[in-house]
Specification:
Layout: E1 6-7, E2 12-13, E3 20-21, E4 28-36, E5 39-47, H1 53-70, E6 75-79, E7 86-92, E8 95-102, E9 105-111, H2 113-131, E10 149-154, E11 166-171
Antiparallel strand pairs: 1-4, 2-3, 4-5, 5-9, 6-7, 7-8, 8-9, 10-11
C-alpha cells in the first residue's frame, strides 16, 4: 500500500546524482509509491505522443550513460532483453531505477533490485497483453519526426464489417503546411 497515485507531467527524473530530462512531455501518466515490509518501490507509467516512445527512451538512455561516466558508484546498462522491447537500468548504491518501454508507453520502476525486477516484469506482462492488439510495440528510429509518424486511424464508419477496428497508416505533413 502507499499514498494515492499522482498525475505525471514533470520533465525530469532525479533518482540519481544527475537530472535526466525528458525530450518531450507525456500525454498522460501516473506515479505511485508502493510500500511493503518497510521497503518502497516507485512506479511511473507515461504514455508519450505517437511515435516518440523509442526516441524518449533513447534520449534518457544517453543521459543515463553520461551520468554513469561522470559519477563513481553509478552504472548504466541498456538492453533489448525484457522487460519491454528496450530498457535502461541505472544502479546506484541505494538501489536500482529501471526504465523500459512498449510502443509509446514508458515505465520507470525504482527501488531495491529484486523488487524492481519483480514489479517490472509483472507490469510488462500486463502491458504486452493489453497493447498487443492496438499498438506497434517496437517502433523505428525517425517515428518521432512529423514526416514519418506511425499512426493508427479508425476504419471509415461506412465499412460495417470492420467497424471499431484499427488500420496502420502513415501520417505525412507537407513541409509548407500553414505557410502563406
Amino acid at each position: 500500500t502507499g499514498p494515492a497515485d499522482a498525475p505525471v507531467g514533470a520533465g525530469q527524473i532525479t533518482a540519481y546524482p544527475c537530472a535526466i530530462s525528458l525530450p518531450t512531455q507525456p500525454v498522460v501518466g501516473r506515479h505511485r509509491t508502493f510500500n511493503s515490509a518497510g521497503r518502497s518501490v516507485e512506479v511511473t507509467v507515461s504514455a508519450f505522443p505517437a511515435g516518440t516512445g523509442l526516441w524518449t527512451l533513447n534520449e534518457t538512455n544517453a543521459q543515463s550513460e553520461k551520468c554513469a561516466q561522470e559519477h563513481a558508484g553509478v552504472s548504466s546498462s541498456n538492453t533489448q532483453q525484457g522487460p519491454g522491447v528496450a530498457a535502461t537500468q541505472v544502479n546506484v548504491p541505494a538501489g536500482t531505477a529501471l526504465t523500459f518501454r512498449r510502443g509509446d508507453v514508458v515505465v520507470r520502476v525504482q527501488g531495491q533490485p529484486d523488487d524492481v525486477d519483480t514489479i517490472s516484469h509483472a507490469l510488462d506482462d500486463t502491458l504486452a497483453a493489453h497493447l498487443s492488439a492496438c499498438a506497434d510495440q517496437t517502433g523505428a528510429p525517425g517515428d518521432e519526426r512529423a514526416g514519418g509518424v506511425s499512426a493508427r486511424r479508425a476504419v471509415p464508419a461506412g465499412d460495417a464489417a470492420a467497424l471499431g477496428m484499427l488500420l496502420d497508416s502513415t501520417a505525412s505533413l507537407p513541409h509548407d503546411a500553414g505557410r502563406g
